[in-house]
Amino acid sequence: MIPVGALAEIPVGEAVRVLADVPIAVFRVSDDTVYAIDDTCTHQKASLSDGWVEGCAVECPLHASCFDLRTGVPDGPPARTPVRTHQVVVVDGMVYLRVSTGAGQVRAEETEVA
Predict the structure, then answer these.
(1) Which pLDDT tens digit goes with each residue over 65-82?
(2) Under CATH, domain 2-113 is a member of which superfamily?
(3) Overall pTM surpassing 0.70 (yes/no)
(4) What DSSP letter does each residue of the chain carry, written as one string?
């Protein structure tokens, strides 16, 4: 697993960008719910961690496609291809990321708080 940082350092409604094999955006949507998706929009290479979070979706900062943070599926054009989702685990207040190895979409698991 990849360490992301302290949960307390990620404001609710914000994201941090993690550099792995590909950039990954880690979003904190509530006090205890965190999701992770590939950071690059599948439409035009924008950083989704720079987008706007509302509920369990992030809006791409370039062309307003929204991606579901739980599934990676876009809500409609211009983006048509989902982004990969990744598992996030929170242990003792620290956030860790388990990167998906599949080439396709992988259903995200909600935060596990231990």
Answers:
(1) 999 999 999 998 899 999
(2) Rieske [2Fe-2S] iron-sulphur domain (2.102.10.10)
(3) yes
(4) -EEEEEGGGS-TTEEEEEESSSEEEEEEEETTEEEEEESB-TTT--BGGGSEEETTEEE-TTT--EEETTT--BSSTT--SPPPEEEEEEETTEEEEE----SS-------EE-
